């Protein structure tokens, strides 16, 4: 099974290269960035993610979400991975992340293997982008050539994580505004929301729809009544909200287009999902219809939108750094170190000029 999927990776991506990919919107990143410095990179990411999935089938969804939560907060710069320290206020404790972010340990497993194979060259931000792509593919979703060359941030911003990450009770207008702030349009919104074709959610994030929606004393009228009964069993009215349920009730672990037919039968889990189809006269309805009918249309849009999302606010060139450990910025030179380096350089210059 493993080798079959590995062979398939190669075939899938070759076909896609021949088909051409519009990644030119950001000329700074390049799918072949590590061709010389870390040719095994994609294989390592693939191997570690596949291994992790054997004991945790949800990991594919968690890694796709992790890349999204990185990119929407000061760009795809691995700021989401930074732990609390004296100078870092971790984004992992922002409301949309706290107790729901997963896959951090798997990213560290990847980084450890990558550092052994090719030390000091591969950024954690690129690992997140690759892990998302590999996860999509291993869950039977699309694959694409991931533009690479991101660098890692020296900062994190919890306030910004609370501000920028969309909430599950957002209306369509709020969702559009949140995505447009990141340079993503309505098609991107509908395509990327399709990632809710797999993974799980806590009851607390949609229980507001089940019993007293918008202070009406009734459930959300757009919610399918059969689905409502199922959800009510898992998420009792005055429960703790900590139970988990599948985002896609029909094919919970598979990356497919079922998300969109779910929306058409009132089975979007979050208000933010159902709004895409149930907002009267919305321009998203026709896109949902198209994706629910045509898997290729969805997969092609998803690839384009993931690449677009992966370009948000990237650091390149000499910006940021390549972290040695994804949870911490590298040790900065102390003033003493800088003095020593500077005086060494002066000595060398002195030698050069005396020749
Ligand atoms: C459109 C606005 C979005 C909202 C409001 C939203 C909200 C949420 C919420 C509340 C959860 C459940 C978290 C939990 O209970 O642990 C979730 C899970 C998830 N989201 Fe989103 N999301 C959005 C867009 C996206 C995008 C753009 C992606 C990726 C491209 C994505 C991928 C996922 C995945 C894969 C999961 C399941 C994660 C897991 O099982 O670990 N979401 N989302
Ligand atoms: C494989 O997964 C197991 C369980 O998560 C983990 O302990 C182990 O380190 C992983 N091995 C590799 C090579 O990734
Ligand atoms: C980072 O913080 C998380 C949560 O607080 C913790 O589980 C993890 O062990 C930390 N990572 C490192 C490398 O210290
Ligand atoms: C994050 O969750 C933990 C555990 O539930 C909690 O103790 C902590 O206060 C939360 N952090 C923030 C910033 O809300
Ligand atoms: C974090 O983001 C907030 C909100 O955009 C901004 O006001 C603040 O300056 C940022 N903080 C840091 C340390 O960059
Ligand atoms: C969104 O942007 C893509 C290009 O990235 C474009 O093909 C598409 O037509 C745009 N959609 C809308 C609704 O503007
Ligand atoms: C919630 O109720 C307010 C008025 O009480 C209404 O304007 C708004 O559209 C409702 N929101 C939804 C999502 O139904
Ligand atoms: C969790 O779900 C089960 C049904 O699967 C239900 O009996 C239980 O009350 C729920 N617990 C909470 C805390 O919501
Ligand atoms: C839940 O709590 C509300 C308000 O505290 C109460 O009116 C309601 O009867 C409770 N529902 C259940 C099923 O316990
Ligand atoms: C609700 O879901 C059931 C199956 O779970 C389906 O038969 C029915 O058509 C759905 N209702 C609507 C309004 O789509």
UniProtKB/TrEMBL annotation:
Biological processes per GO annotation: hydrogen peroxide catabolic process; response to oxidative stress
Cofactor binding: number and manner: Binds 1 heme b (iron(II)-protoporphyrin IX) group per subunit. Binds 2 calcium ions per subunit.
Entry protein name: Peroxidase
The organism's place on the tree of life at top rank: Eukaryota
Residues the record lists as binding substrate: 166
Purpose of the protein: Removal of H(2)O(2), oxidation of toxic reductants, biosynthesis and degradation of lignin, suberization, auxin catabolism, response to environmental stresses such as wounding, pathogen attack and oxidative stress. These functions might be dependent on each isozyme/isoform in each plant tissue.
Location of the protein in the cell: Secreted
Chief location of this protein within or outside the cell: secreted
Domain Plant heme peroxidase family profile: 28-330
Cofactor(s) required, per the database record: heme b; Ca(2+)
